[in-house]
Amino acid sequence: MLKPKLKYITIVFFISLNGCINPFAPKLDNSISDENSLISNLKNIDGVFKNLQYAYTFKDTTIYGELLDEDFAFTYRDYDKEVDIAWGRDDEMRVTYGLFSNSERLDLIWNNIVAITSDSTNVVRSFNLTITFNPTDIIFVKGRINLQLEKSAETGKWKILTWIDESNF
To answer: 5-33 in b/e burial notation, b at 16+ Cβ within 10 A?
Structure first.
């Protein structure tokens, strides 16, 4: 049995610990708004571009995958063979995972929106992408993407239906 003085010191000690801030379990900062967040809620088309940039910068296939519709199609021009090549969502996720895994750094910069429909379902936007595989192997890609977007009636979030790559790569 604890002596009364030791018992009092023990109680005071535990009460004082309860008021201390644990640096390994900080309180949630509720002051950060959606506007300042690195990831968008996809309620507007700017959020699609913001999340694409985030996914490339942090090589995050989870965020990237959330942007693509189940019926997604990617198309690019193979200039050597003079044909358009297309694939679906599963192949796109595999290709993007390979890019994210095999590069040291990805820097995606969005430039001007070149064209946009009044309902924002088609957007053409220019970009610059720097792919760093290692310090001596760096690729610079510039061009435009032509996106067909769709807003979900259930969630109000935009998703990419088609992506036509109009770049120099």
So the answer is: eeeeeeeeeeeeeeeeeeeeeeeeeeeee
Which residues of the chain, if any, have pLDDT below 70? 1-37
**Would you state the pLDDT for residue 39?**
84
- Whole-prediction pTM value? 0.77
Name the H helices within 68-135. Answer: 89-102
For the segment(s) 40-167, the CATH number from 3.40.190.10, 3.40.50.150, 3.10.450.50, 3.40.50.11720 is 3.10.450.50
Residue 50 near residue 63, CB atoms below 8 Å: no
Give tens-digit pLDDT for 101-117.
999 999 999 999 999 99
Backbone angles phi, psi at 130, to 5 degrees: -110, 120
